[in-house]
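Retro notes (design track)

What went well: tokenization of the new backbones is finally stable.
What didn't: we kept losing track of which sequence belonged to which structure.
Fix going forward: every design gets posted as structure first, then sequence, in one message. First example under the new rule, 232 residues:
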């Protein structure tokens, strides 16, 4: 008898077997796409999952709904993912890859300005990073809903490794710009990341007043970063 035919219905958390959580960067999909068709199927599943998680949150999402939105069978979904938590981890991995590239582009421009002229001050750099984070939320609404449902400071949260990786990236990249050491950069950056995450979660793209909230967020964290990290 097929093991997964009974898996179309999500089992309650209290009867779900305990599994060891892994970092998103360590995830190995159950079926690694080797052909373009498999890659397209995986992309459709992740796109569908992003919509479902954004709409219903982790507790309300089912693998059946994700498969239906993607236009595939539940059996096909299970070729790639063991359960919806594995899908959540994959969304976190996808967000991290896009975020590192996007934030890296902002920091590359800051580094070019720093070397070529007088350089940007910390406030301008941080403002650019906040705007970048707001743009990323628009294309990763499901991940941000997960960040709301499962706080990134929990070891079992898909966002835990994301936040750790971003903190490491910012400490390294901003350090190359010659930040003052009047405060511990890691502590400052962790506080900024959490403030930005929380503000964007409670002011999603669809909410009236979102743009004003993002602008106020820029001013707030830029002033804090300047006060604690100085100028380049």
């Amino acid at each position: 008898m097929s093991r997964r035919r009974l898996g179309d219905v999500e089992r309650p958390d209290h009867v779900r077997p305990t599994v060891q959580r892994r970092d998103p960067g360590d995830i190995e999909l159950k079926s690694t796409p080797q052909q373009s068709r498999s890659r397209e199927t995986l992309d459709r599943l992740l796109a569908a999952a992003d919509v479902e998680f954004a709409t219903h949150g982790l507790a309300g999402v089912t693998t059946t709904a994700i498969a239906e939105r993607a236009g595939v069978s539940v059996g096909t979904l299970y070729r790639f993912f063991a359960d919806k938590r594995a899908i959540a981890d994959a969304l976190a991995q996808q967000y991290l890859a896009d975020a590192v590239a996007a934030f890296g582009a902002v920091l590359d421009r800051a580094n070019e300005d720093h070397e070529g002229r007088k350089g940007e001050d910390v406030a301008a750099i941080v403002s650019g990073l906040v705007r970048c984070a707001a743009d990323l939320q628009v294309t990763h609404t499901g991940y941000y809903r997960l960040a709301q449902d499962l706080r990134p400071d929990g070891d079992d949260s898909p966002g835990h490794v994301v936040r750790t990786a971003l903190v490491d990236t910012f400490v390294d990249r901003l350090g190359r710009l010659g930040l003052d050491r009047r405060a511990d950069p890691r502590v400052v950056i962790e506080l900024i990341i959490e403030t930005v995450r929380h503000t964007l979660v409670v002011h999603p793209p669809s909410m009236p007043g979102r743009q004003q909230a993002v602008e106020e967020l820029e001013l707030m964290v830029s002033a804090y970063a300047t006060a604690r990290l100085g100028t380049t």
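Added context from the reviewer: Residues 1-26 have pLDDT under 50 and may be disordered.
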